Amino acid sequence: MQIEVTRDTFRLAQVFTISRGSRSEAQVLTVRLRAGDYRGWGECVPYARYGETPDSVADQIAGLPADLTREGLQELLPAGAARNAVDCALWDLEAKRAGKRAWELAGLPAPGPEVTAYTLSLDTPEKMRAQAAAHAHRPLLKIKLGTPDDMPRLEAVRAGAPEARIIVDANEGWSAQTYAELAPHLAALGVALVEQPLPAGDDSALRGMARPVPLCADESCHDRASLPDLQGKYDVVNIKLDKTGGLTEALALRAAARAAGFGIMVGCMVGTSLAMAPATLVAQGALVTDLDGPLLLAEDRDHPLAFDAAGVHPPSADLWG
User: Fold this and answer.
1) Which of 78, 152, 254, 321 has CA atoms 20 to 30 A from the CA of 108?
2) In this predicted structure, what is the pLDDT of residue 20?
3) Is 221 helix (H, G, I), strand (E, B) or coil?
4) Conformational region of residue 78, where left means phi above 0, alpha means psi within -120 to 50, and beta covers everything else
């Protein structure tokens, strides 16, 4: 089997800002596998927050053996972006070899569309109200917060989209005191979920604190090994394939998290339809689906995912799986 890695850049429709900074393009790595007449591919987004760079991830992939299997991959690479792209490419390759869809190989029922969040970039309250008003027709809006001045932003978004369901992502930007002060106001404004209010590794203060709005572990949850430490701090876990290291672990994490009593959110980095495609399988029946990456792009892959009033649809076989 031949393994090829390329670096690809996709322009965003507008500058996207979170508490850690801004970007105007999505930089991804694409893995292509070739085995005889069959091809498989996958995508990952190296993430500096987890110590990843395009070079480091490409080097991990370049060191893989030619006789690679999906089962063996789980032992060869840790959870992260490199394993994700290769794992998803292997799923795609296996599906094409078998003449079946990836969901069939995984023993899953046929997937359908799932309503997805649409993310509003961090900005001034006035601009965030305008963003919210422009997307008020969407059933689920996600707000990027995580600063000392978040209440005016949240109030502005609620005013701009009074009927939308709202979730908040603090991106580790709050202190325990800030969260405790904000929590009652979040509930009063009808916020349905809060992602990662405190920094991962410094979130023990959440254990025993009141949670008037369900809390979701994002940076604190990578794979099944993360689950024991989340008990008593979070109600929901955010499964992202770039964290789990691919679809294989993502499906296992979903099952383990549900068994442990956690709700499921399925999220993404800012990537293309190729990155979202495997995640649509994990998102089936999730409490929250946040696979809006392609909606933030000015350009996408060929045969992109379909988005409509029903939500994000599973991929066609022309795209993946």
Assistant:
1) 78
2) 66
3) coil
4) beta
